Amino acid sequence: MATIREVVEAFSRRPGVDAVVVVGRDGLPIDSHAKNGVDPENVAALLPSVINGMTQLGEAARRGEFGTGVLEFGAGLAVVSVLNAEAVLVVLVQPSTNVGGLLYDLRRHRSAIAGLL
Q1: 106 — phi, psi (to 5°)?
Q2: Three-state DSSP class for 114?
Q3: What is the 3-state secondary structure of 41-98?
Q4: Domains along the chain with CATH numbers
Q5: Residue 16: pLDDT above 80?
Q6: How far is 88 from 110, CA to CA, in rounded Å?
Q7: From CA 18, how far away is CA 57, in angstroms rounded?
Q8: Contact between residue 77 and residue 19 where contact means Cβ atoms under 8 Å apart
Q9: Among candidates 23, 43, 21, 42, which has minimal Cα distance to 32?
Q10: Closest CA to 91 of 45, 32, 36, 51
Q11: What is the mean pLDDT of residues 38-50?
Q12: Bridge partners (DSSP) listed for residue 24
């Protein structure tokens, strides 16, 4: 059976991925792999407020609970996926990266990844 560390490493080997961070709802990193100057602890600390904002948006728009989002920035994308009530996964990718396969894998394996925590 895979470990959360192996899952993080596998996602980090995808083309265009700069960082993979599994974050507790308290804003502390559970596991991470980062390159290209990404600070996983800073990313982890900021993520709970992002999730809270997305949750409020979902409620206001009557869309239900937040599950996964793709946020576009000038220097790349952040794919944020709620694993369970205690953890969130964020994958930071370079701007030209096709995230279709990543989104498919996150949706398909979300519960298995959450089970590793």
Answers
A1: -65, -45
A2: helix
A3: HHHHHHHHHHHHHHHHHHHHCCCCCCCEEEEEECCEEEEEEEEECCEEEEEEECCCCC
A4: 4-115 (3.30.450.30)
A5: yes
A6: 10
A7: 27
A8: no
A9: 21
A10: 32
A11: 94
A12: 87
- Tell me how far apart the alpha carbons of residues 58 and 79 are, in angstroms, rounded to a whole number: 17
Look up residue 104 and give its DSSP letter: H
Model pTM score: 0.92
Confidence band, pLDDT 50/70/90 cuts, at residue 2: confident
Dist. CA 53–CA 106, nearest whole Å: 21
43 token code pair:
């990313």
Query: Collapsing DSSP states into helix, strand and coil, what is residue 17?
Result: strand
What are the residues whose beta carbons fall under 8 Å from the beta carbon of 88, sequence distance 6 or more? Answer: 22, 23, 25, 47, 51, 80, 81, 82
Give, in degrees to the nearest 5, the angle at Cα 19 between 98 and 95.
35
Cα–Cα distances (Å) from 117 to 2, 48, 63, 96, in that order, read: 11, 18, 27, 31
pLDDT in tens, 54-104: 999 999 999 999 999 999 999 999 999 999 999 999 999 999 999 999 999
